[in-house]
Specification:
The chain is α+β, with helices and mostly antiparallel strands. The protein is built from twelve helices and 14 strands.
């Protein structure tokens, strides 16, 4: 890009000026937290200023267990849509040789007129854009204050493409837009990491300000506590890679079954999982308990499919027990002054864990408390009144009917 000039940025009288777009970004755009809304607003203000931009987008790399990047793309007549790129996208044809790779690796602008592309040299994306009627394409670095370089793209259907002054203004636009995208990026990354490592329920509470030791709420919920059987023996017999795969298969299938029914993992405790199905509205006890029991059945079914594959691969099966109970606990921020964690405190969690423990002696995969059983319509088989370790009295328990 040539050196920016006042004429290039503001434009002569017969061309467009970046000034009203910049004013909108600095006054209103900086308050927008959603990338789609920001991009739609930016496209509208570019239009109002007289710029001929028919395709506009930005992309940001991110730190997330499942995603490598996220972004948003606007097309004239179609609006804006968000998109994500999974880990490993850098090894695909969509990335290799693309303008995206050019900007990321060289950290400088990429511009290509689209009228006379080379089949061998030019990336397939450019051929697709030409087929859509676009004439000129520009990819620019979005430089964050952290030093990370992401990118902004713009394309036009104007017969003459972008002028040199257009290129100057779009380069300036990238500098104006970068801090706004960085703010959105930081929030999305924070939310993504909180969701992945502490769960959306706890993440939301942290962002609402429940960060002091002792902060918490009383919640009513259906509780799930499951534990692998024979894990100590497996951990001594299996290579680390196979052991981790077994754990991940077990965690993944239980988590997926619970999440589909509104459950959220509160903790992984070694090879055990504590999941909560919170009752948010009074009167929802029956539906939430049904969801928890259905999730348990779904998990057992999905693990059975996994075990079929493992058996054919000569691998040990995944065997686990699961306790379900309905109760009330305190969900609170506890720990040392400089190392905190949200935890659930109360006898309901202890009882759920003891129900799981009982599955080993009863020879059944699931044991349900009387409290939860009273709320569900699915037929259950009574196992009688039993003692639970560390809990006073005898307790009526049930399992799945054959």
């Amino acid at each position: 890009m040539r050196e920016l000039s006042r004429r290039g940025l503001l434009g002569p009288e017969d061309e467009w000026s970046l000034a009203p777009v910049a004013a909108w970004l600095m006054i209103e755009g900086r308050r927008i937290a959603e990338p789609v809304e920001l991009l739609v607003g930016l496209a509208a203000h570019l239009d109002a200023a007289g710029a001929r931009v028919d395709r506009l987008g930005f992309t940001s790399a991110t730190l997330h267990p499942q995603l490598r990047a996220w972004g948003c793309l606007w097309r004239r007549g179609e609006g804006a849509v968000p998109f994500t790129g999974p880990h490993g996208v850098e090894s695909t044809d969509a990335f290799i040789g693309s303008p995206t790779q050019h900007v990321y690796q060289r950290q400088r602008a990429y511009r290509r007129r689209l009228e006379a592309l080379d089949t061998e040299r030019d990336h397939v994306l450019l051929h697709e854009l030409r087929a859509e009627g676009l004439t000129d394409y520009l990819a620019l670095p979005l430089e964050f204050g952290s030093g990370a370089v992401n990118f902004l793209t713009a394309a036009t259907e104007a017969p003459r493409g972008f002028s040199e002054d257009d290129l100057d203004r779009l380069a300036a636009l990238a500098n104006l837009l970068a801090p706004l995208v960085e703010i959105i990026h930081a929030r999305r990354m924070t939310l993504g990491l909180l969701d992945a490592f502490v769960g959306p329920r706890i993440g939301e509470r942290i962002l609402r300000g429940q960060v002091k030791r002792g902060d918490g709420d009383l919640i009513q919920a259906a509780f799930w506590y499951s534990d692998l059987r024979g894990f100590t023996t497996l951990s001594e017999a299996l290579p680390a890679v196979q052991l981790l795969q077994l754990l991940n298969d077990y965690f993944e299938n239980c988590a997926a079954a619970a999440a589909a029914r509104g459950g959220e993992i509160l903790q992984f405790i070694g090879d055990a999982i504590l999941i909560v199905f919170e009752i948010v509205q009074p009167g929802d006890e029956a539906s939430v308990c049904e969801d928890a029991l259905d999730a348990a059945v779904d998990a057992l079914d999905s693990i059975a499919v996994v075990n079929h594959r493992r058996r054919h691969a000569g691998l040990p099966k995944i065997d686990f027990g699961l306790g379900l109970h309905l109760g009330t606990v305190t969900h609170a921020n506890v720990g040392a002054p400089d190392r905190l964690a949200f935890n659930v405190v109360g006898p309901a969690v202890n009882k759920t864990a003891r129900l799981q423990e009982l599955t080993k002696h009863a020879g059944v995969p699931v044991i349900v408390s009387q409290e939860l059983a009273a709320c569900v319509s699915r037929p259950l088989r009574p196992l009688g009144r039993v003692a639970l370790r560390g809990i006073a009295g005898l307790h009526e328990v049930f399992t799945l009917a054959k």
